[in-house]
Amino acid sequence: MADDFGDITHDTLLGGRLICCQHRQGYRFSIDAILLARFSLLRPDTSVLDLGAGSGVVGILAAFLQPSISLTFYELQPSLVALIRRNITENNLMSRCIVVPGDVRQRQGLQPESMDLVVCNPPYGKLHSGRLNPGSEQAIARHELQGTLVDFVQCAAFSVKNKSRVAFVYPARRLPFLLSTLQQFRLQPKRLRLVHSYPGSVAKLLLVEAVKNGGEELEVLPPLFIYQQKDGEYNEETAEMLGLF
Hints:
- By secondary structure, the protein is of the alpha/beta class.
- The chain has seven helices and eleven strands.
- Strands 3, 4, 5, 6, 7, 8, 9, 10 and 11 form a nine-stranded mixed sheet that branches. The protein has a two-stranded antiparallel sheet with strand order 1-2.
- A hairpin with a 4-residue loop joins strand 1 (about 10-15) and strand 2.
């Protein structure tokens, strides 16, 4: 449903318990963001950084799920920074959330080893892959035009405290590259879950949690299936994550 601004829609999460304002023709969040927020271990009274926050969906949902955490939203694009601020206000989270405009390659406004958890839904598309408008909000958010995976991982490693955690969602086909990049910056993968569209399909996404200077043990969790079957309804776990019942 569009508001009076015309180019902004008021969308909802968790069955209407949360509001997300988005640009109708710009970057719009997908289920990836919700899965990341649900996957992350949100411990009470901790500081969380939503890195490359987009419109702020991951952090907004995390703040709702764990009412005692504090959130920092880090985003490059001014149009999305404005949406994050609006979404914080719309969901009455002003007392626990701050927005820091910045570039992950420069890390301006971020303090080293200051966060208990960093969550990140980075751009998936490689530079020079596919046809796109390099100046558009959606292209910058979804393609590595203003920062590669290495840049996002390095920024996460810079920001997170020693022995604390980072969590990423990323295409499953790029699993080896993500794991090797995490380890390059001393982020040891500890929990991994593959996401499939439906039983019998190949994995499309992965969710991974890593610990800064952690040990070698990796827990591979059971797969997550979005739908019960091809072209079917959401499975029970996914429906619960989405707040459909």
